[in-house]
Amino acid sequence: MSERPTFEIGLVMAGAISAGAYTAGALDFLIEALDAWDEAKARGDAEAPPHDVRLKVIAGASAGGICAAIAAVALGRDFAHVSAGNLGSASNPFFKPWVEDIDISVLLDNGDLEDDEAQVLSILNATGLPRIVDTVLDTAEPPKRRRYVAEPLPVRFTVGNLKGIPYEIGMRGNTAAGHAMRVHGDDYSFLVGAPPAGPPDPPVPPDWVAVTGGSSSADPAWRKLGTACLASGAFPLFLLPKALRRERHALLDRRTFVIPGDGTNDPHHGTAREVEIEPTWPTPQPADPYDFLCVDGGTMNNEPLELARHVLAGGKLAHNPRAGKDATRAVLMIDPFVDPADLGPGAGLPVTGLIGPLTDAWTMQCRFKPTDLVLAHEDDVYSRFLLAPSRGSAGPATRHPCASGGLGGFLGFFHRAFREHDYLLGRRNCQRFLARHFALPADNPLFAEWPQALKDALAIPDPAGSHLPVIPLLGSAGAVQPLPKWPSGRLDPKSLEPAIEARADKVFERLVAGLGTLQRWYVWAGWKFGARSLVVDKAIGAVADAMKGQKL
Questions:
Q1: How many whole angstroms separate alpha carbon 2 and alpha carbon 87?
Q2: Which end of the chain is more exposed for a tag (fewer CB within 10 A), N or C?
Q3: pLDDT higher at 462 or 307
């Protein structure tokens, strides 16, 4: 990077399930815009703003974690971008896995249960997902070095660590007992690219994995990154959980936490500090290395803003400048699901009616972040930005702007046209976001070297005063991204019946395989002549209702 004024960005991709296609499209356009601007600066074009941007860190959860992994590969490769006029570019590492490769036909395939000894590890067949990851890692596109990407680039995934890490709150009292608890919200982090010339500043935690060289499924470090992203996206029950491993004594025993200060002048207690706290391992202690089973990172942390913010700010105790005239870096979150938080029940429910509200309450509590809530209500905070789906006022009045928005986010898996729409919507929304919203006040030092004519040409009106774009739209990125046509009438839910029925039969068959012959016969008869139709009809009805709500 040059010595020009530089704005640093931490990309955060929230959980999205099949609307990961939206995030993928947004990332595709973001890289296209940054490439076009960087090339214009290299040519010395007069319309190219003379500041720099540095992509400092990428973090993701669930489908956002998978998008983060794809970005880690794509940023090191030269690839063709996808738009409405060239759908299906096989060389695009975002479009192929999210639009072409992942589909309900893959997830309902029974290949994972054909073996008589096979166990049901997930409701859907997730064995094809590692092959998709390998395809991304083994992309044949030529290498490309991008000046605006930090090297090495931190890439971080949230995971739901089912095993957990135990800690104990010890307090002065009448016994030696303490308050026992476990941490299950975990993360797996990587440094992608050439290692730094000297000691990293700030120091890198010891459990971060170094990934160097071109991406390849044969490289152990890249394979570990691919496995971690699959663990982040392992939606509970429906997709296969993944096992990860860490060195226990060297890594887990050295994790740090922030102790708040008490506001006094005491040199030890007065200010906040970061300290290592060793877990309270049971006796005997677990094996080293430490193996743990993971489910979807979004179960514990669906919007991992802090994973990016800590890197941007330079540590857990540091802060990013927030005022518009001072901002030098920001977290940019892409979140396909920013729906209003409906209220839960306010009256008594039967026991069977509590499962849904309890699950919803758990999910919402995991998402609640008091600091982010407070900052969102401050008018002059320019250290965080949000890109979310929008179709404006065009098209039918649907429950969600993404075609994938129905069925809890799973609807996109049921037809390619839904994913194509969301991918193109991501590109369009990203273009408009960069042109109208990802901006700073014109008096920010980032724009100090801009000629006045350029400021006048690119000024963005704002009630708070003139703003200028952080990332300009030049070259191909300036071509208008059209609003994609709403993909209605593309899927008949009844056409799914054979595949759903076959999958349900195979899952049931494997679940009852351990019963005795007579028991198995009775249970199977009950399934064949009653329960199966109920399950299949419920599944198809749920898809039909979701499509109706989405006007599809």
A1: 36
A2: N
A3: 307
